[in-house]
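Aim 2 progress update. The chain analyzed this quarter is reproduced below.
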Amino acid sequence: MILARLLSNIYKKEGGIILIDSQGTKYICGNPNSNNPTTLKLLKKDLNWKLILDPEYEFPEAYMRGEIVIENSSLHDFLMGFVKNLGRREFSTLSRITKNFHGVWRYLTNFNTIYKSKKDISHHYDLGGEKGEKLYDIMLDKKHRQYSCAYWKNDTKTLEEAQNNKLNHIIKKLNIKKGDKILDIGSGWGTAAAYVAQQTGCEVTGVTLSKNQYEYSINNAKKLNLDNQLDFQLKDYRELKGKFDKIYSIGMYEHISLKYYNTFFKKVNELLKEQGTFLLHTIGVVDAPSSPSKWISKRIFPGGRCPSYSQIIKPIEKTGLIVADCETLIRHYDKTLEHWLSRVMAKKQEIKDLFDEKFLRMWQFYLSSCSAAFRYRDLVVFQLQIVKNFDSANRTRDYIYS
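Predicted structure tokens:
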């Protein structure tokens, strides 16, 4: 069986699995535990070739349909072991070809217009209306409701602490002062903007395309008595006018189509004051530019992609903006995702009641697979500080940690 041979080739570092096809034939791949070995059961015959041709798409689809059963292991632990052995390689030559073909097709057909951007954002962040809000209540930290990578110091114990660390780290990097006029591009539920306003006394404008997030932001600002400092707008960043002392964008750049990277940085350049600073916090790829995940694009983040460092830098250079500093956050997002997954699985029956079994499996795979990719594959988070001139740049990083 070709699939079994490919899996045996992957499980060379450590561990292994028992593969059982739809006919009940067993294959030993690698060196599985002698007691209670991780077992992968394929319940449909066509998975024998589908998982060779396009495993990144076909595996999660089959898992969602209940056509793949994992025994003696959780999905998370199975994926961690598999991706640790796979590393930054592709599963097979055929899967690489299929992935590259999808990447070309995606580039040719994906246009990040304002209309399409609203539709794509609504797919994920307005998920099921009130049901989606309950899901995010379950999953995200209780203090700041942050849906992006947290910042884990050596002594950080909880998700709430880690998300608080991230926001403080960003405030320090931007050196935000009372009286500064701040812009949050992709402001989510408005909680980062609210925290920045509370901690610094500045005024923050936040823009989002999600109706649910916008309404939450407005209500939260009133609840915190920050109406006079916070201005939330339901609009695309391309529609903004004005000038700002500091701009930040946390986890929004991943939603921009490759064709619109130049547009994004041109707009930032237009909105940023001459002595201002922009901080970009985005997921990125440490390898050369690659195709976005077909499954993530269909099920989780339509229109999204994780840029390589070079894909971020080139459009910055074209605008004349300057990268004053870049920090790569390695093995912060895997922990964040694991905490989200733990909270989801602790309330899995409630989530099934809100949605259904298929949705729960989809969400479980999304969080588990992304966690594995951040730990063992090619995903990191880049934090870039960007200025217009040398006078705006800091000579050292001392001000961040003082």
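The chain is about 50% helix and 20% strand. The mean pLDDT is 96. These observations will guide the mutagenesis experiments scheduled for the next reporting period.
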